[in-house]
Each structure stands twice: as structure tokens, then as C-alpha cells.
Amino acid sequence: MSESETVSRSLRQPIVLTSIFAAGWFYLWFDWLSLYQISAEIQRVGFASTVLPVGWWLHRSGKESPLVRYAIYSFCIFPIWHLFTFAFYELGWMTLKAMAARVGLGITFVTGLGWTTYWVERKSRVLQVARLEVSGALAKVGPLQSMHTSVAGVEIGSRIWNPFDMDAWFYGRQRQKLRQSLSVLFGYLIIFILIVLLLLQASGCQELYEMPAGGGEQKQLQQVVKVQKVIKKKFIINPLSSVIFNPPPLDEIKLQLLEITKHAYQVGFGKGTGAGFSGGTNRGKVRFIRIEYSGGDWDQGIDADLNMLIQYNLRTQHKIAERPETRKVAQLKNFPVGKSPPVVYMTGQKNISLGKSETDVLRGFLIEKHGLLFADNGGSAHWGNQFKALMGRVLPHVSYIRVPLDHPIHRVPYPIPFLPYVAPHGGTDALAWVVDGRIAAYYHPGDIGDAWGDDHAGVPTPIWEACYQLGTNIIFYAHAEYNKWLDSRKKSD
CATH homologous superfamily of domain 289-492? Predict the structure, then answer.
């Protein structure tokens, strides 16, 4: 038995076990991207466990041939890449997560290109050597000359269509090697882009959004009433009494009563047990989805999204997702009607560049899927104008209006006494695009997202607390209106 056969047999069992582990890892990865069926705890354990097989193979690579060693390094790239991406995501380091995703994609591209070049070169050399043996012509062609001339050095009578063969007719009779290399490069680039686009498309294919099951009422969370009464006490003293009195001064005595009225109800909408929505499911969760768009800084202050999501849970007791998410506008079309997000969030301070197809998808999300677009001006009047122009294309027949403070979106579950903002980048009024009596798009003019950050942008406590309350109101309003729509669909059916 040869040494190579012995090595191959020794690796047979580890390869089988690793293949089984890789199948489980791939399912975890796909679930993390789109399905959201596996709990966060299982995902953490699953992704962390990839360290064991990766470590074993990297340790084993030192005993193998260079080719096998490079193959091991190449396969280990994927679990390491996704482990770092997942870890940064769990820690809330969205900037590092995005960087890890881009770096991993670049390394994957270069690695794949290297193996493709090696494979094509090997196939081409085998064909060339075979032709040399058949012809008996051992042409002496140097490495530089081989960039221009086939190493076979023979004329081919019939047309050859095999792209691995340098003597294929479409490579010509000069610079065959160069032309073959360029063809491999462009072909690989096209296939790689198509695969990436397919994965991006699949990552949101028929993704389902489900609200938490439950019920409740649309009322204000609490109301505090302070009542101040002034009571004048009168003392009557009998001068003939043998008891010596030391009466207090006949000053006014002020009594301050604090009456706290709390509505004993569960935050939600519809009939059900616990805080939630009658149209939800037991596995449903409120999710915070930020929109990615071209032309600007869609990821501005993205670390604050998790804070708002957690605050929503604390204030409503609704079940929430373990982490916030991002989606491209085009991915919104992958949510089916009746299982789509009730609200999505976008912000920035530069440009907003959406094509016609993206505009159509956004229009379908707002109207057909009954969604709400929550837009937050992140720092410039320019962005506000950009957003108004965008809505003019998305909803051309709907004009925006000023949202009064007595609107339900500003009253439930928190009564908002004033519109809170960090800075009035786009005015001091909230704007809305109303469709069939429902707010389909809500525009906040003053960087509410900055107040959700860890440092609250340095604004006073009443401001950032009101910003959390307003964020809670908007998310709740969208889900409550979405639930009403689901109920109406059930009745009509």
C-alpha cells in the first residue's frame, strides 16, 4: 500500500465526520440568515463548536502535502469567517460585523480564484502534454513564450471547443495562454457574482415575520395627577379648663396628595393571553429592521438599534428578537403578504438613491403589505429633502401632513407632551404620509436614533427618555394597525 493511499484512508473517517458537522453548520448559517427558527442559545453553541473541527484540521495540516494543506486552509476559511461575523453580531458591534463580512467575502473570492486557476492550468497542461506525446514534437517553449504560443507547438486540423485546451479555436493562434487566463478570470467573476446575488436573494426568500401572540388594549401606560389641598385647622381653647394647652400657631397647613392612576391592562391589541397581538404566534417576536440603501450612510448610529429594541421589551413586555437586523429594500418583496414586517426603520444624513424597482418594492410594502416606514433624519436638511422626494415617487398621490401631538401615535402607550429631538435638522414637526386613515410613513426631523445611543448624544434625561417613549409608540402603533388589518382580512375571508 502506497503512502498516499495510507494517508487517504487515515483521513476517510475524519472527512465523513467533518461532512456531517459541516451540514449542521450550514443549516445553522442558513437559519441565522433567514429562517430564525433556532434559538439564540443553540446558535451560539453551534457556531462556537466549529472551533473543534477547525482546530483539529489546522493541527493535522502540518502532516499533509502542500496541496492538501492548502485545501484544508481553504475550507477552514468559511467557518472562521462566519464565526467572527456571528460573534460581532451577538456583541452588537455592527461596524466590525460588516467589516468581517466584507473581508471574508474578499478572501473567499481570492481563494476560489486561486483554486480555479490551478484546476484550469492543470487540465490544460494535461491536454498539452498528451498532444506532445501523440505528435512526438517536443517543442521547446519558454515560460514567456508560452504566454503567446501553445506549448504543443503543433497545428490542429479540426476545431477544438474545449475551453481547457489552449488550442481551442476561440483562443486564436497567438497569446493562447493569456487569452485562456483572461477568459477564466472573467468567467469566474461572473459566476461568483451570480452565486453571491443568489445567496443574498435566498437569504430573504419567503422570510416570515410573526408578531408575538397575546392581546391587550390601546391605552396610555400611566397617568400621574398631583392634587394640592390647603386645610385650615381651627383650635378652640376653653379658658376655664385646668389643662394647660400649647396650641400650634394658627398657620395654614399644606397637605400634598399624590394620586397615581395606573391602567391595569396588557399592552397589545386583541383578545389573547399576555401582552401581544391576537394575530401573532407563540414563536413570534417584535423585530427591529433597519433598511439598507445606496447613496448614503444607512448604517449611521446602528449600534443604538439594540438599545431601542430592549427598551421596547421593557416597556411593553412583548417578546423581542435577540438582535436587530438589516435588510435591503429589494429584500422586502420576499416577505409574503400577511407575514411581513409591520415597521422598518431608515436613517442617514447624506443621499438616498433608490432605483425604480426598489421604489416599486417599497410602495408594495407600504400599501399591499400594510407596512410603516419610520424615517429618522440623522443630521441634515438635505436628507430630509431627499426623503420627501423619495416619498413623492413612492406615494405620488399622497401629500405629507404634520402629525399633531394628540394623534394616537403620540399618545399610546405613552402620552408625548412634546416632540423630542436631539437637533432640529429637518424642522420641529413630525410628518406623515397617510393611506386609508393609517400612517404609512412617519418622518422624524431631529435624529431620534442618536438619543437611543449609549451616551444619549449628551441630551438631558427628559429628552432621551421621551425619545425612547416615542420609539415605543411608533413600533407599537405599526404592530397594532397591522393586527387590525390582519383581523379585517380574516373577517373578509
Answer: Domain of unknown function DUF4159 (3.40.50.12140)
